[in-house]
Structures are given as structure tokens and as C-alpha cells.
Amino acid sequence: MHVITRKRLNEFAQKHRNTQVSLERWYRLMKRGSFRSFVELQTTFPHADQVGKLTIFNIGGNKVRLIAAIHYNRQKVYIREVLTHDEYNKSKWRK
Does 59 reside within a domain? Predict the structure, then answer.
């Protein structure tokens, strides 16, 4: 799948250095994947959840929440937000 944009992952990892390895792992798995549905995605990411049209990934032992819009038909993943668990719980991302 084509991940748009890796820059958000890098920026988050710069602020939260302990998340870099986990974010890199997520990126590699997503880039190599060719998921056709949310059900297929869950075989690789069993803790992913759908919230409306968005997919929420729990990364780094639930320390990071990555919010993405996935277009399975076009094989594109648009990263909307990368948040700490606390930031995610404040729900400001649900605008």
C-alpha cells in the first residue's frame, strides 16, 4: 500500500523518540501489505479498529494511536493523525 505521508511518522518520532521503532515497523508492514478490506488488514494488525470511515491503529504497546483513512480500492493509506494515548483520549481528533 502507498502510505501518505511518512513525514507525520517522522515528526512524531522526533518528539517521542521511544516510538520510532514501533512506527517504523508499522510503516514497513503497511507498505508491504496489499489489503483489500478491513478484515484482511486485521490479519496483520489485529488491534486495529474502525471509527466511522477512519482506521485506528494501536502502536507501541498502546502508547501511540495512528489515525488513518484507508482506500483499499486504490491501495492508499492517508495518515490523518499520530497521537499519544493521552492525546487520543481527549478526542480532539474527531472534529
Answer: yes
Within-domain flag for 60: yes
93 versus 20: the higher-pLDDT residue is 20
CATH number at residue 16: 3.30.2310
Number of domains, the chain: 1
pTM above 0.70, yes or no: yes
Q: Among all chains, which residue has been given the C-alpha cell 466511522?
A: 52
d(CA 59, CA 73) in angstroms, rounded, equals 24
Residue (of 52, 56, 24, 19) closest to 41 by Cα position = 56
User: What CA–CA distance (Å, rounded) separates 54 from 56?
Assistant: 7
* Cα of 25 vs its chain's centroid, Å: 11
* Domain of residue 40, residue span: 2-89
Mean pLDDT of the region 19-33: 94
CA distance 41 to 6: 19
